[in-house]
Amino acid sequence: MLKRNVLPDNYTYPILVQACGSSREGEEIHTHVLKLGFGSDVYVLNTMINMYFVCGEMGNARKLFEEGAVLDSVSWNSILAGYVRMGDVEEATLIFKRMEEKNLISWNSMISGYMKCGSIEEARKLFDSMPERDVVSWSAMISGYAQHDRFVQTLELFNEMQRGEVRPDETTLVSVVSACAHLVALDQGKWTHAYITKNNFEINSVLGTTLIDMYMKCGCVENALEVFYGMKEMGVSSWNAIIVGLAMNGLVEESLEKFSEMSNHGVAPNEITFMGVLGACRHVGLVDEGRGYFNSMVQIYKVEPNVKHYGCMVDLLGRAGLLEEAEELIGTMPMAPDVATWGALLGACKKHGDTKMGERVGRRLIELQPDHDGFHVLLSNIYASKGRWEDVIEVRGIMRHQGVMKTPGCSLIEADGVVHEFLAGDTAHPLMEDIDRMLDEIAVRLKMHGYAPATNEVSLDIDEEEKETSLYRHSEKLAIAFGIISIKPPTPIRIMKNLRICEDCHAAAKAISKVFEREIVVRDRHRFHHFKHGSCSCKDYW
DNA sequence: CTAGGGTTAG
């Protein structure tokens, strides 16, 4: 357009801003605009400021702003929002303080600015001191909480919002549903879904995808599918949520079916789709199929595998016992393998008792990432399972020396609409006495049914009896005991854990599901375990 | 022309 000498106007500038990919292009447009005498038009000036932020030229934007003879409130908000978008909150704060006329947009920009840099309390202070709030203010706070894993606060603020006059919109609800998903707060999730339906909110592709994810993460496959089939438009993300969710719930065949259905609907898979597909294969050890999908990524779908896809393949091969092939695959990676890749191999070594490779990989990982707790723990557990206690003590010594803290196991469980949190070895819960009594009862009744704790997973202690007690205080066991007390059958006991479930807790949960005739659903870091009548949906392959 | 959104994860 510039070359053809067509005059720009109010409608062409936004297009120019969008199209402007480099600072050189930006300067070119700027010069042209000045030549045409548009420099004193405040609308054009504001567009130019925005354009410079789009091409990452904060300095030029600032210069225009400071030299601008005719600034209006949009100019001020543009420069403020620009700094917020670039993540320069300090500069944004200075602008905000200089502003004489702050409107809702200014306040809202500043809230998201604080949220973006993790100053959650600052954002809240600002929010509380606002003269008035609109739906964007509430959403900025609510989504900010959700993005910083403050899910309880997300729901609290949403509750508070409902007591006021401002009505939520689809954007607000996305964060709320997402918080429910993370907390595995199924009751609240279902309530929010009902609220959405009752108030005739449109279940658009984003909100629908979030609902699907929420139900899948709570183990409610049927509800997730219902949302899916009710959606008007399904983007690749919606398919991904379904494919990943089905796989996570152990419905591998159905997951792979959805993958082929997706192609029939003309939706092209992306990187995440293949994380789901490869993850599905990994869950049940479909090695040949996994290799096939992995090769098809480039050959058919033109999706380049990233480091996580390789990690997934290493895990698939490793878990299936093909340790050599897994290590060879790492050697062929076009990018540097990350710690997760080596971690997958280390996990496989642990599973298949390959102490030699495990020691090699484990030592290397500790050097690569000395502050990561998981690898120390894995290596020390590899030694522990072979009874090499001196090596265990050495690794624990390195951990202590490096100041590596073991991530505490944490389990969440919802009862009567309230989410309860248990940490490993926790004694803080108000019902602790009842829980302790239940833990004793579990121990006694399981022992009567011939269940013996797998104490080799506990590598620290010397005393067998003490090992047993510490195993009985894993966070998921505390949550199960609490669930037996607080949740009436036949409602399943649903638990979410931050780490992978350990061998002993897995065995115990199976036994409890039989002895206590309770259905237990545990979602660990990786996938679901549906315990029923003494067996698990993962068929002990995990 | 300026403010708020989800999906993967040893």
TrEMBL record:
The GO molecular function terms of this record are: RNA binding; zinc ion binding
Gene Ontology BP annotations: RNA modification
NCBIfam families the record matches: PPR
What's the superkingdom here?
Eukaryota
This protein's name: DYW domain-containing protein
Q: Check the record and name the Gene3D superfamilies matching this protein.
A: Tetratricopeptide repeat domain
Q: Name one Pfam family in it.
A: DYW_deaminase
Q: What are the PPR repeat spans here?
A: 72-102, 103-137, 235-269
Ranges where the DYW domain occurs: 450-542
Keyword annotations for this protein, in alphabetical order, are: Repeat
Keyword Repeat among record annotations: yes
